[in-house]
Every structure is written in C-alpha cells, then in structure tokens.
Amino acid sequence: MSEVVKLERQDEVGIVMVDSPPVNALSAAVRGGILECVKQAVADPAIKAIVLTCAGRTFIAGADITEFGKPPKPPGLNEVLVEMENSPKPIVAAIHGTALGGGLEVALACHFRVATKEAKLGLPEVKLGLLPGAGGTQRLPRAVGPELAVKMIVGGDPIGAAEALKNGLIEEIVEDRVAGGAAFARKVLAEKRALRRLRDDDSKIAAAKADRSIFTNAVAAMTKKSRGLEAPFAAADAVGAAIDLPFDEGLKKEREGFLKLLVSDQSKAQRYAFFAEREANKIAGVPDGTKPRPVNRVAVLGAGTMGGGIAMSFANAGIPVTLIETAEEQLKRGMGIMQKNWEATAARGGIPADAPAKRMALINGVVGIENVGDADLVIEAVFETMAVKKEVFAKLDQYAKPGAVLASNTSYLNIDEIAKETKRPQDVLGMHFFSPANVMKLCEIVRAAKTAPDALVTAVSIARKIAKVPAVVGVCDGFVGNRMLAQRGKQAEKLLFEGALPQQVDAVVTKFGMPMGPFAMGDLAGLDIGWRSRKDRGIKSEIADALCEAGRFGQKTGKGYYKYEGGSRAPLPDPEVEKLIDETLLRLGRKKRVVSDDEILERMMYPMINEGARILEEGIAARPSDIDVVWLYGYGWPIYRGGPMYWADTVGLKHIADRLSVYAKETNDPRLEPAPLLKKLADEGKTFASLAAASKAA
Ligand code: 3HC
Ligand code: NAI
Predict the structure, then answer these.
(1) Known catalytic residue at 105
(2) Which residues of the chain have pLDDT under 50?
C-alpha cells in the first residue's frame, strides 16, 4: 500500500486520498499511489464509484517541480490519467484549496469534478516557462470552451469555484470535499449518469473549429503582455492543436511542446525564480519557531504617493487601516485618489462593483499622529528627510501601543539612526514598498541592528498576507534595489558624455527585457528632484542640469530626456535633446565616439552585479537569490532571465570580472574594479549559485 495515497471504502464509494504535504505535488510516489489505488478500486466489486481527493491544505498543486530536470521516474502522469479516464466506474475529483497544473489535469481526467467554495482551479505552467504537459491543453478547452481555456492556459491565472461552476469545469460546489464528493458520486450512481470522458466530447470546441478567429482573437488578447516569453506562445499553439487535431494527436503535440520548454533556458530561469521567491521567506539568523506578532489593525502615516498605495494594499487584503495625515486637506486628497483608483479598477472589471465602497470603509482617515493608538503595525511614509523621520518616530514612541511594530518606508535613510529616537529599537525596522505600492509586489524588509526576530517575522508574514513578496535586507544606502540601481544610473549618465543617446541606452535595456530604460524611468520619476538635491550638495551633472535649466523635468512637464505629446506617456526621441547634449559636450571639450549596444548592455548590467557581490560580502542580503527576488518583483527584471545574479552565472563570472576591469581602466573609475567576492568566484571558476548551495550545506 502506498505511503502517500490511501484507498478507503464508504459503502459503495471508494475514497482515494492523497496525503503528501505540503501541497500534494505529483511526485513519483503520488503518481504511483494514485495508479495503484484506482486499479484496486476498479477491481473491488464492492466499490461502484470512486472519489479522488486530498488531505491537508490543498488538492494536488501540480507536478513536483523539484523532479524537473532529473531522470523521469515511472509511472508517467499521462499513464495514470489514461487509467483513470478509462475506468469503467465513475471517478469524481473532490477539490479544495488549489487544483493547479498537473493537479487540475488529474481532475480533468476524472469523469466529474466538484469543489469547495474557496477552491481555485488553474493551469499556471506558463508562469514556470512551461505548458500543461498532461492533457490540460486538450481537455480544458473541451471542458470550458477555447476562450476561457486560452485565458487560463496562456495567462496562467486560476479561476474560483463559482466561475468554474458557471463554465462547466465543475459540476457542483460542496461544503465538505469528502462528504460532498461521496454524495455526488452516489447521485451519479443513482441517476445512472453516463461517464463523461472529456477526450470524447468536442461539443465545446465545435464553434472554434468552424470559426478559428474565436481562438486566435483570444490568443491575441492574452499574449499582448508576453513580450520576450516563449511559453505563452507555445501554450497557445498546444490549445490550437486541440481545435485542429484529433485528441490523441493533440496530446502528442502538447507533449512535444512541453518537453521542449522543460529544457529551455527560460523555463529553468522561471523555475529558479519560483524557488527563489519561496527561499526569501526563510529568514537567516532567526530562531526556529519564532512566531509573528498578531496584526489586526495597521496605521499608515502619510497619505501621499506611497502611503495611499500602502493603505490600499492592506484594505485589498481586508485589513483595517488608520490613515494619518497632518491636515484635513492632504487627507482628503489622499483618500480621494484611493477611491478613484479603486473605482477605475472596478470600471475595468478588475474588482467587483461594490469593492471600492467596501475597501474605503476599511480605511479610517484621521489627522494627528496621536491617533495611532490601537495599531499593531505602523508604517511611516512621510517626507524623505531624516529630521522629519526622527520627529515622527519620537512621537510614535510616545503614542504607539507597546509591542507595535514600527516600520519606515524610507528609500535611503538609515533605520538604525531612526530607531535611536525610540526607547524600543527592537520594534523598529524598514518596510520598503515600491511605487505604485498597490501594484508592485516587492517589499524590502529592512532589518536594523536591534530589530527583534519576532518583529522581523511579523513584517515578513504580514507582507505575504497582503500578497507582497518580501525580501529581508540590511541597512545601507538604498538597501539592495536602489543601491544597485544607482550604479546603473551612474553608467547611463556617463554613456551620454561618451556619445550614446538616451534612446539608444533605453532601447538596449528594454530589448534585454526590462520594462523601461534608465532615462524613461528618470522622466517618469521627475528630473527636478535630483537636480535640487545636486544643487544642495554642490554637485554637477552637466547634461541633466542643462535639461532642468531648460524646464525639462520629465513627464510632468511633457519634456525631459524625451518629449511627450498630447498627454501621452510614450517617450519620443527629441532632436532638441540631442542638440543640447552636443552643445554640452562641445562646451566641456568632450569628443563623441560610437558606443556599441554590447558595451551599453555590459555597462548597464555588470556594475549592478558587482554591487550585488558587495551587498553579499557585507551581508546586506543573505543569498544571491534574495537579490534576484528584489529585481524580479521591484524593478520588472524579466522573469525568463531569473534575476541579475542568476543571469550573471549564465554569462560567466570570469567574463564579467574581466570586462569590469577593462571598464574600470577605460573610464578611470576604480569602483568598477571587480568586488573581492566576484573576483574570488571568477578566479575559482565558481558561480553565485555555489554560495547558496554552500550556505544550505552549512
Ligand atoms: N512542486 C514542488 N514543491 C512545491 C510545489 C510543486 N508543484 N508547489 C509548492 N511547493 C513547495 C514550495 O516550494 C514550498 O516549499 P518550502 O516550504 O520548502 O519553501 C511549499 O511547497 C509551500 O509552498 P508555498 O510557500 O508556495 O505555499 P502557499 O500556501 O503560499 O502556496 C501554492 C501554495 C498556491 C500551491 C503554491 O505553492 C504554488 O503556486 N505552487 C506551484 C503550483 C504550480 O505551478 N503548479 C504547476 C506545476 S507544473 C505542472 O504541473 C506540469 C504538469 O502540467 C505536467
Ligand atoms: P509624498 O510627498 O507623496 O507623501 C508624503 C505625505 O506625508 C504627504 O502627504 C505629507 O502631508 C505627509 N506627512 C508629512 N509629515 C507627516 C506626519 N508627520 N504625519 C503624517 N503625515 C505626514 O511622498 P512619497 O513619495 O509618498 O514618499 C513617502 C516616503 O516613501 C518617503 O520616505 C520616500 O522616500 C518613500 N518612498 C517613495 C517612493 C516613491 O516612488 N515615491 C518609493 C519608495 C519609497
């Protein structure tokens, strides 16, 4: 008898129970166990119908991703599914939690499906750079029609039980999976329902067979945002095969596509990113079993750009927020923007029509920091000046309840210094969200010198609760993300002095897969902020200064490194900027040269990787994969390139170190010399990944 799958009998119903924590993934043992139990149930004359269900927190969450890339172990999943689909006795999948990937494919090979109310069903393989490899692309269109199938397979997002019921993916919503599944099985027996094998049922794809545009339009809509990715297009082709070919041939096409993607560099990078994100939840140096403090109410200080977005993120997760401002006017403006944002999302159909009102009701806007009283977590998002932050934390020390976690959203300032303003530095840390905070998933959790382990665990756990991806970092200027970004910014600026144009630099960076280049990003953020700060510090940056002196502050003035026409956000190259750069270089007596795209890419990326190595040396990030998580979720690093440190390994650290040395000399910039850690790894022929493996072994 299998260790992880058991067969029990309740009267004439055989219950096949998968019990393989944490998520019942389809390891070889689970596949073998299901096959064995189904065969036994079919052979047992006392059993008339079978229910396949799971113990623990979820239905099968997919293939076991840790098995990918290793030699396959029998039985293959398709073999198990054929046995199930051909069973002469009805099989009912009873779903709770998440039926994902291979998990949903198992359910699709059953004759009927029921699910609990909160269940989610999906084929998220594209998010791992794959396509469903066990019949999902062939059976799902037959279950729900090609349009929804394309949405689920090419987009990768799951649907809820209600939508699954409406579209025929499940037959019923049940209270309890085992009792409900068994009751449904008895009903099938009593009503003598015919077994529905999806492979034999073309009724829902008939319309698309007659008019293929139903399918191609759905694909066009879903692949709009798939720039650079291979899997969504391959997944769409596999769904196309369901429409164009008989079932078995379609299945063969799907298999070919799956196997091709499985060994692709993109999928390897995406699978790495999946585990990197989960690894980031494990905090180095925190005693096992450290529990988070309860967080039932949050206070956010400042209803500006960031405070508003942060408050929205909590309300989106149903957590009540006290939003605190200095005056009614600012409060009203901030609350107004939040309401408008939600209403716009509701108008697009992104959230239910009644959600904006419900979410606004969770936000209690007040004036005065003394109202922070009952919050378990306070996040400060006030102006970025040390004096203001210090004043705010001194007041928080006075008014916040004992044990409340006190977080700063500062982008650059020293949290240790801020914590000193309180008599409870153990409760102080950074929670650095990214703009727009209600959209961007990253939250850098900044651990200060005296932050208590349970305060840190609280921040990580609440960040996850509001659907953010936390990454724990240490105190330094700009933490992980902005510190590395600053290196890129420096090079971007230098390149202009050597003869490159903003549009050339940005094009190289976006072609690599980043959503925006440094100059378009500067225009979006506003060039005047840096200009003022340079003036205060007596620093010059001649080209950027000349732009600002000409009133070109970026998007907000319709002109910056680019021009923006008719209120559009699309950056257009501007001959005036080229002229202004030429004039500046002439004035400074600088000669232009042709800068190649290869050089631009190296100078955009390698100095960031070098800074990443320093960040690791200093222990600001515990693992290279944490740095990758920061870039994937805070800066739109293309997921199919895994993250800067992962990508660096694929390029080769020796090459990167050598090129950095060359640039250090050519541009007379000692900061570009390879960091000791990078140099050491390069000399030893090692990778950043080897550090993670070594720290796991320790
Ligand atoms: N294989 C192996 N391990 C998995 C796994 C999987 N499919 N899914 C989750 N895990 C592991 C995680 O790595 C984590 O391990 P850890 O505790 O050691 O870090 C643990 O299970 C718990 O996972 P989460 O922290 O993500 O738990 P949550 O409760 O937040 O989320 C989940 C649960 C929604 C199921 C989420 O884990 C998830 O999305 N998993 C991946 C689902 C997926 O992509 N399935 C498709 C796989 S590909 C496939 O099926 C191919 C097929 O078509 C042939
Ligand atoms: P903002 O200027 O849009 O908002 C700041 C708000 O704080 C204002 O509405 C102001 O009235 C309010 N405020 C000032 N003092 C206050 C006090 N004592 N109590 C309550 N409210 C007070 O600024 P923004 O952009 O939201 O930045 C806030 C913080 O977030 C800064 O530390 C910034 O560095 C950081 N940050 C900003 C990002 C961005 O892209 N804008 C990204 C990540 C972090």
Answers:
(1) yes
(2) 698
Residue written as tokens 């067979």? 209
203's tokens: 């009724």
Element (H or E) spanning 231, and its range?
A: helix 231-244
Helices 597-617 and 653-666 meet at what angle, rounded to 10?
A: 110
The HSE-up count of residue 396 (CA atoms within 13 Å, CB side) is 32
In one letter, which amino acid is 324?
Answer: I
Beta bridge partners of 113: 93
Q: Give residue 69's pLDDT.
A: 86
Region of residue 545 (left: phi > 0; alpha: psi -120 to 50; beta: else): alpha
Q: Is 78 in the pocket of ligand 2 (CB under 6 A)?
A: no
Task: Please tell me the predicted confidence (pLDDT) of residue 689.
Answer: 97
* Residue 695, pLDDT score: 64
Cα 571 from Cα 559, distance rounded (Å): 9
666 in catalytic set? no
From 12, 67, 85, 105, active-site residue? 105
**Residues 392, 326: contact at Cβ < 8 Å?**
no
What angle do helix axes 624-634 and 265-279 make, rounded to 10 degrees? 100
pLDDT at position 698 is 47
- For helices 688-697 and 644-651, angle between their N-to-C axes, nearest 10 degrees: 110
H/E element holding 23? none
